[in-house]
Specification:
This protein has about 375 residues and is an alpha/beta fold. The chain folds into two domains: about 120 residues, NAD(P)-binding Rossmann-like Domain (Rossmann fold); about 200 residues, Dihydrodipicolinate Reductase, domain 2 (2-Layer Sandwich). About 35% of the residues lie in helices and about 25% in strands. The chain has eleven helices and 17 strands. The strands form three sheets. It has a nine-stranded mixed β-sheet with strand order 16-15-14-13-7-12-11-8-17. A six-stranded parallel β-sheet has the order 3-2-1-4-5-6, sandwiched between helices. The protein has a two-stranded antiparallel sheet with strand order 9-10. Helix 5 links the parallel strand 5 and strand 6. Helix 4 packs parallel to helix 5 and helix 6 packs across helix 8. The longest helix is centred in the last third of the chain and has 20 residues. The two termini are about 25 Å apart.
Length: about 375
């Protein structure tokens, strides 16, 4: 495929704006957008500078080489299936689907196209550096993992959003929304799979905006991995003062590495005799981390840079390349399966074994 890729975006909210920015920065043309009504589509097209406000999903798909699905979660399955049925490539926001079974359907359906999920925290150079140091044995034998993803945007009972609704967002909110990023990053950095979980959930407010709340605000869990490492994770959207505090700390028999998303240009290295902070500098990073380090050391990189790197690697895959670490639909399905295991554990108050892969699904 030659020339600039044509991108269509389904959805008109914050994530649509983020995807549009990333697509353009990655060299694509955003040619069409579709929101929830003709009026909203026209407004989104005007605000984002998109020439076509599509009148239907079919029209948008026909105009595009790659379709980005950024709608509420309940639409992901139907819209992504329509894209891949037309033979077009697809980027679908997480959670990939509201059930693991539907996520598995999408993995199978998308086997003939490039189909990716924006687990964009993988694309911070220092997250890649953490992964490289674990993979090359720099921390020794993996022993423990500690992680958290903390926000406060739903702290008050007056705070509300479509994600709170199980009909719109699915059975899990906090874990499905941001815990999926956390478990993806844990497994990506460690190269190890979570195999058992024991979880508790918490709903801080029984109602929001006059309607009952059926989804969780916070999740605490302990887990084990296939290699025998122990994992402790905390996810919350009601942690006062925390805006986007995604942190993982991976400890081994020789050293510890810690990546904190709110300080993305740093990697903390813990040692028994001394600890240090490694700052992003392409000259001293592993090759995969260095390729994602696009500005000189000392010039901050952040969320939009990571999102652009994700889009760039997705489009490289469309053109036939094989970029390392690109999160595919199988990774989205994996997160959906872990989310269901967490909810099942909390409901039954017991350990749940996590299958190695979704039945019938292929990477």
């Amino acid at each position: 495929m030659t020339g600039a890729l044509r991108v269509g975006i389904v959805g008109g909210g914050f994530m649509a704006r983020t995807h549009a920015h990333a697509a353009r920065a990655a060299g694509a043309q955003v040619v069409s957008i579709l929101s929830s009504s003709p009026e909203r589509s026209a407004l989104a097209a005007h605000e984002l500078g998109v020439a076509e406000a599509a009148g239907s999903l079919a029209q948008l798909i026909d105009a595009s080489d790659v379709v980005h699905v950024t709608t509420p979660n309940r639409w992901h399955l139907e819209q992504s299936l329509a894209v891949v049925a037309a033979g077009k490539h697809v980027v679908c926001e997480k959670p990939l689907a509201t059930t693991a079974a539907d996520a598995s359907r999408l993995v199978e359906a998308a086997s003939g196209v490039v189909a990716t999920v924006p687990f964009v925290y993988r694309f911070h150079p220092m997250a890649r550096e953490a992964r490289a140091r674990v993979a090359d044995g720099g921390i020794g034998r993996l022993l423990t993992v500690r992680g958290a993803y903390l926000q406060d945007w739903l702290l008050d009972p007056s705070d509300d959003n479509w994600r709170v609704s199980s009909a719109e967002g699915g059975a899990s909110r906090a874990f499905g929304d941001i815990g999926s990023h956390l478990v993806d990053l844990v497994e990506f950095v460690t190269g190890d799979r979570i195999d058992r979980v024991a979880a508790r959930t918490q709903t801080a407010h029984a109602s929001r905006g006059g309607h009952a709340v059926e989804t969780e605000d916070a999740v605490a869990l302990v887990a084990s991995t296939a290699s025998g490492a122990l994992v402790s994770l905390l996810v919350s959207q009601v942690a006062a003062g925390r805006k986007n505090a995604l942190t993982i700390e991976v400890s081994g028999s020789a050293a510890t590495v810690q990546f904190a998303q709110e300080r993305p240009d740093e990697l903390w290295i813990g040692g028994r005799e001394a600890s240090s902070v490694v700052s992003r500098d392409a000259a001293i990073l592993s090759p995969d981390a260095a390729r994602l380090s696009l500005v000189p050391s000392g010039h901050p990189m952040g969320y939009l840079d990571a999102f652009t790197a994700f889009a760039r690697d997705t489009y490289a895959a469309v053109r036939g390349e094989a970029p390392d670490g690109l999160p595919r639909f199988a990774d989205g399905a994996r997160a959906a399966m872990l989310t269901e295991a967490v909810l099942a554990s909390a409901a039954a108050d017991t350990w749940i074994t996590v299958p190695a892969a979704l039945e019938g699904a292929h990477a």
